[in-house]
Specification:
Strands 1, 2, 3, 4, 5, 6, 7, 8 and 9 form a nine-stranded mixed beta sheet that branches. α1 packs parallel to α2, α7 packs antiparallel against α8 and α9 packs antiparallel against α10. 41% of the residues are buried. The termini are far apart. The protein has two domains: 195 residues, Spore Coat Polysaccharide Biosynthesis Protein SpsA, Chain A, CATH 3.90.550.10; 81 residues, no CATH class. By secondary structure, it is of the alpha/beta class. β1, α1 and β2 form a beta-alpha-beta unit. The protein is built from ten helices and nine strands.
């Protein structure tokens, strides 16, 4: 990294009643080795002690607020409205940045700045106590295979402020697949570069808002339905007209069955059904997706 110019990195943390994890998230940002970071926290009016934690570090924050908002997408957009950096990232209040992640991201964005405006790394999966329980090595992406965008580790993604402003940030009407929608819109303007290094830690716990960490069948169904609409709107043209609804609805049906199964089967359904669906979609959807669902039903 050149000492002549250090791009400013703006990092936003949206938070609401996550005091249990918030301080660890804050420290994962403040303890980064990269020297030019602007850190912003947008709290949705927490009542669990989160505000006291934020105040503990407010002298190291560029800006923070605690007030009601319209959800995570709105909070992130609000945070970046106050950002003045060249590069953006957001880290949720239960996730973590790995040491050196920011420096790594800036290095590659600067190196590739003439052709690439977004980089992302791999993910460590941690439990409620921050123990590593799994790893996730992200795939590469292209416009020819956009459905794999749903598998991009959000916490490890860094992108230029120019790119964010070009697409007008997150769609505030989305609450479960807003990151996937953002990646899709980004991909219309730039290619993504995968850094094969663990850059983020995703926490799996009962209240996680991911399809792989849903705390209730109601939340899972909301995610499934929102993802169904997203797939219809953006990827539906890849499927034949006769198969489109049928194939996507099979995914939704399987997701709705998740909480009728025991713990082991829940994990199998959530991970294998979605992985098989996206891995085979669209080129091999009939062969791989249908055989996967058949196998799951026989489990």
């Amino acid at each position: 990294m050149s000492n002549n110019y250090l791009p400013k990195v703006s990092i936003v943390t949206p938070s609401y009643n996550q005091a249990e994890f918030l301080e660890e998230t804050i420290l994962s940002v403040l303890n980064q080795t990269y020297p030019n970071i602007e850190y912003i926290i947008v709290d949705g009016g927490s009542t669990d002690g989160s505000v006291e934690i934020i105040k503990k570090y407010e002298d190291r924050l560029a800006w923070w607020v605690s007030e009601p908002d319209n959800g995570q997408s709105d909070a992130i957009n609000k945070g970046f409205m106050h950002a003045t950096g060249d590069i953006y990232n957001w880290i949720n209040s239960d996730d973590l940045l790995c040491p050196g992640a920011v420096e790594m991201a800036v290095h590659f964005l600067e190196k590739l700045k003439d052709s690439c405006q977004m980089v992302f790394g791999d993910r460590l999966i941690i439990d409620q106590n921050s123990n590593i329980i799994d790893i996730y090595e992200a795939p590469s992406f292209s416009m020819k295979f956009p459905p794999m965008l749903t598998k991009l580790p959000q916490e490890s993604a860094f992108f230029t402020a120019e790119l964010w402003k070009k697409v007008n940030g997150l769609d505030v009407s989305l609450h479960y697949v807003m990151d996937t929608d953002l990646w899709y819109r980004f991909l219309k303007h730039t290619f993504f570069f995968h850094i094969p290094v663990f850059m983020g830690k995703y926490r799996k716990h009962d209240d996680s808002k991911s399809v792989f960490g849903m705390g209730s069948s109601q939340n899972l169904n909301k995610r499934a339905l929102e993802e169904f609409k997203f797939l219809q709107d953006h990827y539906g043209n890849f499927l034949t007209r006769s198969n489109r609804t049928k194939k996507i609805m099979r995914l939704v049906s399987q997701l709705r069955l998740v909480y009728q199964k025991n713990k082991r089967e829940r994990r199998l359904l959530k991970e294998e059904a979605l992985n098989a669906f996206y891995r085979g979609f669209p080129q091999k959807i009939n062969q791989q997706c249908c055989s996967s669902f058949k196998r799951l039903r026989q489990t």
